Amino acid sequence: MELPGFFGIGHLDLSVSDVEASAVWYAQVLGLARLRSVAFADRTMIVLRHETSGLVIGLNQHRGAPRDPFDERRIGLDHVGFAVARREDLDAWRAHLVALGVEHSPVTDAETGSALVFRDPDHIQLELWWSKPSERASEDADTAPRAARADGLIERSSPLGVAETVARLIETAKAAGVTVFATVDHAAGARSVGLEMPDTQVLLVGNPAVGTPAMQAAPDLALDLPTRVLVRQAPSPEGAPGTPGSAVVFADPVAVGRRYRLSREQVAGLSAITGLVDRALAPAPDASHR
Prior knowledge:
Layout: E1 11-15, H1 19-30, E2 33-39, E3 43-49, E4 56-62, E5 80-83, H2 87-100, E6 108-109, E7 113-119, E8 125-131, H3 135-140, E9 153-158, H4 162-175, E10 179-185, H5 186-192, E11 200-206, H6 208-217, E12 227-235, E13 244-251, H7 253-260, H8 264-270, H9 272-281
Parallel strand pairs: 1-4, 5-8
Antiparallel strand pairs: 2-3, 3-4, 6-7, 7-8, 9-13, 10-11, 11-12, 12-13
Helix pairs in contact: 4-9, 7-8
């Protein structure tokens, strides 16, 4: 019998000694937003949410429970680890903890990644963890400079400016039979009201033959379709020093599929955007080798 599967951690509940103090701590240190407080017969619970990842954490103060500090050596929870996208993010988190006066470990590098460890007011061990890319992922990085990020987005680099990159994306989409529904020029909109921002455009692209059945299965998917492809000005490591390149960012179809519980076939259909972007950004053939 095939396992039904699941879509990651839906929520995390922790038992604490002072639920109000812990709620303030988690909001300050981890940036969680307080959603609600619920009074049960045997406990008080405060529910918080991390907006970027969608993780919901419930903090529970049980009436009459022992107030001994947490000890991971007891049977049960050992620690909670939160993923970060880049190794340098751990240094930024360490500076944040220093500013708040939260005791923490040094950033420790291991064979598989790097960690920053600290504890909440009840001594529950928390960890921020960066996973080192595998050798295969490093090889893939030659053709895909930025892979899926922890926030559910995929980022690619283009040595071209925003206008040229957008033109390539439109040309590649039309050649593949993909519809370009609209182009939104945010920088032009800013200039229209006397403001300035780096060159930023968003393409809305899609294939109704693929998207329509998926939206019929998951109507709220219409919030994410047509697919939005962001092209914004960014320094390009492939261009000459000082030459502005572009970052191309779009939602990871696998993450979208998890959010709306799409079938593998539906996710595969939405994943065509990744190949389209990669083809648009591929270097032009060298005429000297023809």
